Amino acid sequence: MTLRYWVWAGALGAYLGMYFLGLLAALPASAQDWSVSGEVGVEARIFPNSPAYADQKDSALSPSTFIEPEFVVEWSGGDDRFTFKPYLKLDADDDNRSHADIREANWLHVGEDYDLVIGLDKVYWGVAESRHLVDIINQDDRVEDLDGEDKLGQPMLQLALNKDWGTTTLFVLPGFRERTFPGDDARLRGSLPISDDATYDAGAEAYHVDFAIRWAHSIGDFDIGLSHFHGTSREPRFRVSSGETELVPHYDLIDQT
Question: DSSP per residue over the chain, as a string?
Answer without folding.
Answer: --HHHHHHHHHHHHHHHHHHHHHHHHS-TT--EEEEEEEEEEEEEE--SPPSSTTS---SEEEEEEEEEEEEEEEGGGTEEEEEEEEEEEESS-TTTSEEEEEEEEEEEE-SSEEEEEEEE-------SS--TT--SSPBBTTT-SSS--B--EEEEEEEEEETTEEEEEEEEES--PPB---TT-TT--SS-B-S--EESSTTGGGPEEEEEEEEEEETTEEEEEEEEEEE-SS-EEEE-TTSSSEEEEE-EEEE-
